[in-house]
Write a structure and sequence with these properties.
The chain is α+β, with helices and mostly antiparallel strands and about 325 residues long. It folds into 2 domains: about 100 residues, Phosphorylase Kinase, domain 1; about 210 residues, Aminoglycoside 3'-phosphotransferase, Chain: A, domain 2, CATH 3.90.1200. The chain has 10 helices and 9 strands. The strands form 3 sheets. It has a 5-stranded antiparallel sheet with strand order 1-2-3-5-4, with helices on both faces. A hairpin with a 5-residue loop joins strand 2 and strand 3. It is globular, with a radius of gyration of 20 Å. It comes from Actinoplanes teichomyceticus. This is Streptomycin 6-kinase.
């Protein structure tokens, strides 16, 4: 049987989301790994950080590397990720090489060298250093200009990936409709009658605007659904490839929202907020999208991030809430 290590934090997260199915899956995971490695002729070759899925680098029979991901088979995210990657077919995203839904297993192309777009941006967005901010080279003005140039390059990489990914959704594709996410706003308002943990007026405004944007969508495409600086990696087959799609169908504008408050949305370095206006302009120009829709989707998705944080028991909405407040005066 394969010898694998399951960190306590990983076990805790899995069992919190799936108390019964998760515990059963974890108990069987070593045997499942052994079976998948044998059936797909793979060898373990490295590890990755774990969250809700067990993810490792593997060697295939031809000597190439790939990424093996195993998760709780009942997870809707696994099915949606696979459906989205199958639709993308390697265009702007890593390729889906094999899938076994019954065992919750997927084999994915590995993006190499695999450096995330956040590395282009540099040390922006993270929590403050304990000894104070890092000095800007050649003065604050030069530092801000260098940061702006790096951010423009990172945003250009994400725009290029979006243009590769977005194609009209075919009939019958097994992915949820974006418009269905409106229920998250409604559930939040029912659960939290006041302004804690989020200002009620912001949630009401975002919910209404979400519906308006979906109703006036210029097209209906297959969306990554969680595209940001940590989910776009350098590659050789294409310059950049997306990973970990959530898989959803709807307005192309939804894709820009997470880019406006990332990376490190829970960090307290708000340089990202200072960069947001330039990002809005660059996204609008690069995606041929009206600027008011970029602003509107940025606001809506920032509030939605806070809504999801509250639904999971969090009390700090982080930078997304600060972005929403910044964008509020710019709403159409």
């Amino acid at each position: 049987m394969a010898e694998i290590t399951l960190p306590d934090t990983f076990v805790g997260q899995v069992t919190r989301w799936w108390p019964v199915a998760g515990a059963r899956w974890l108990a069987a995971l070593p045997e499942t790994v052994e079976q998948v490695l044998r059936d797909w002729d793979l060898r373990l070759a490295g590890t990755f950080p774990l969250s809700l899925n067990w993810v490792v680098r593997v060697l295939r029979a031809d000597g190439s590397t790939a990424v093996l991901k195993l998760g709780v088979p009942a997870s809707e995210h696994l099915a949606r990720e696979a459906a989205a990657l199958e639709f993308f077919a390697g265009r702007g995203a890593v390729a889906l090489l094999a899938r076994d839904p019954a065992r919750g297993a997927t084999l994915l192309e590995e993006a190499r060298p695999g450096v995330p777009a956040r590395a282009v941006l540099g040390p922006v967005g993270a929590r403050s250093r304990p000894d104070g901010p890092e000095p800007a080279p050649h003065g604050a003005g030069a530092g801000r200009a260098a940061t702006a140039r790096r951010d423009e390059a990172a945003t250009a990489a994400l725009i290029g990936v979006i243009r590769r990914l977005h194609r009209p959704a075919p009939p019958g594709l097994a992915l949820p409709e974006l418009a269905a996410r409106r229920v998250s706003f409604d559930e939040h308002l029912r659960r939290f009658p006041g302004d804690d943990p989020l200002p009620r007026e912001l949630v009401e405004r975002a919910g209404r605007l979400f519906g308006e944007l979906c109703a006036t969508a210029p097209g209906r495409v297959v969306l990554h659904g969680d595209l940001h600086h940590d989910n776009v990696l350098t590659a050789t087959r294409e310059p950049w490839l997306a990973i970990d799609p959530h898989g959803v169908v709807g307005d192309p504008g939804y894709e820009v929202g997470a880019m406006l408050y990332n990376p490190d949305p829970m960090g307290d370095d708000d340089t990202v907020l200072q960069l947001a206006p330039a990002r809005v302009e660059q996204l609008a120009a690069g995606l041929d999208m009206p600027m008011d829709r970029v602003v509107a989707w940025g606001f809506v998705q920032a509030v939605l991030s806070g809504v999801w944080t509250a639904a999971a028991g969090g009390t700090d909405a982080g930078r997304p809430l600060r972005l929403a407040r910044d964008l509020l005066p710019r709403l159409p």
